[in-house]
Write a structure and sequence with these properties.
Elements (H helix, E strand, L loop, with lengths): L17 H9 L12 H8 L5 H7 L7 H10 L4 H18 L5 H10 L5 E3 L2 H4 L7 H9 L7 H7 L6 H13 L3 E3 L5 E3 L3 E3 L7 H20 L19 H19 L25
Parallel strand pairs: 1-4
Antiparallel strand pairs: 2-3
Helix pairs in contact: 5-6, 9-10
Length: 285
Amino acid sequence: MQKNNETPVVSIFDFSDFRAYLLAVGMPDGLYAHSNNNLKEWSKRLGYRSPSTLSMVLQGQRLPSYQLIRALTEDLDLSSKEREYFELLVFLEKQKNKNKNPEKTFERLSELRGGQDQIDISLEQFKCLSCWYYTPIRQLIANPDFIEDTEWIAKKLRYKVTAGQIKTALKNLEEVGLLARDKLGRLQTVARGIETPNGTESAALQQHHAGMLNRAMEALEEIPVNERQFNGLTFSMPEEKEEEAKEYLLRFLKEFNQKFSQQGSGEIFQLNVQIFPHSKKVYKQ
């Protein structure tokens, strides 16, 4: 929805958390829509005399009722497809709270997004996934030979993680809905990949990338040269082309993943691509 020529278009399909969407589009510091309204005015327009109900929903203290969901989707003028997506995001949180398998919900959300099998997670969710070994563990679980045993997982990961770290990782991955258990209690991955907010400062993101870079440094010494490949390029580039270069690298990573990644098919690999400046501006005196 775009209310005027100056306000940006924000799609609900870019969100994996209904509260984040509501805060983005409906609050005073949101991106558009009712940017001049306070919580009391918004609640009144939704049919509530007091803002307490809406406030509790936005703060994560309760889930919206069917009545509130309907009022919100009508107030935000969502299409039938957008309404279904919003309702599923609420239902997804209910499933997580009750430890229900959210696989079918994720599948429908993916269909509504256009078939994308990536999960966009908030920075808050990513805080518990910041350690480098969470993503390799998810990939191991998708393999047919996976054994839910901390010693087996530690051995597969070259003993770079402890049994305690593995137990915590499995627990956290289930809590955020990236793992689930089938009817027999076996662990399974819910979605193929994770997408994190791009271009955002975060200690969690920094920790994740630092962990992966440390594994790369270890690989230089520990892994035979015929099982790894390291390349580098030092070059000069006009400053105005920097954003274009970053976008190109993101497209490359997505294309590389589509061509070579096959979940549950073998060993786990890591590809890191970085672009950063060696030099900085030095102004003449």
